[in-house]
Amino acid sequence: MPSGTSSSPPETRKWSQSIHALDRPVVGLIGDGSAMYTCQTLWTAAHYRIGAVFVILNNKSYRILKQRLHAMRGHAEQADTYVGMELLDPPIDFVSLSRSLGVAAERAKTLHETTDLIAQGLKGNSPMLIDVELDRAFKPM
Fold first, then answer.
1. String of DSSP letters for 107-134
2. Which domain range does residue 59 map to?
3. In the 8-state DSSP scheme, what is residue 8?
4. How many domains, the chain?
5. Neighbouring C-beta atoms of residue 140, cutoff 10 Å
6. Does residue 140 belong to any structural domain of this protein?
7. Which of 44, 102, 120, 136 is the most buried (most CB within 10 A)?
8. Buried/exposed code over 37-46 (b: 16+ C-beta within 10 A; e: otherwise)
């Protein structure tokens, strides 16, 4: 991944550590479902003061899994019911979770807020998480 982007928290941390000597920033673009598999990486980033920006693209669901089930044209697609694919009850507060693991965090609702927060995160030498609220509507591909 020569661009310095990644798709999971551990990958973001790994890239940040490996190119740290090159003084290049690392931004990880991570889905909220993927982030739930490896949120302990935030603690590691805080502990080792790894300057990476974790951007959580938050649609409050496992949308990629919904899209795959929809493509299979099975019962889930016919009934428009995707069991276990919603991350709503209880809602996941990535900002609080991140802060509890020692990583600064903010929530963004607009593109402008997101880009401003990424720029802010890239200026620092410590990790930062940005929780970007996305449209929840499921739109099959």
1. EE-SHHHHHHHHHHHHHSSS-EEEEEE-
2. 5-133
3. S
4. 1
5. 10
6. no
7. 44
8. ebbebbebbb
The CATH number for 15's domain is 3.40.50.970
Q: What does the H/E/C string look like for 20-85?
A: HHHCCCEEEEEEHHHHHHCCHHHHHHHHCCCCEEEEEEECCECHHHHHHHHHCCCHHHHHCCCCCC
Task: Tell me whether residue 79 is in a domain.
Answer: yes
User: Does residue 15 sit in helix, strand or coil?
Assistant: helix
pLDDT digits (tens, 9 = 90+) for 66-106: 777 777 777 777 777 777 777 888 999 999 999 999 999 99
Characterize the bridge pairing of strands 26-31 and 104-108.
Answer: unpaired
Mean pLDDT, rounded, of the chain: 82
Percent of the chain with pLDDT over 70: 81
Q: Which amino acid is at 64?
A: I
Residue 117: count of CB within 10 angstroms of its CB: 21
Tokens of 114: 């997101």
DSSP state of 10: H
Q: What is the pLDDT of residues 118-139, one digit of tens each?
A: 999 999 889 999 999 998 776 6
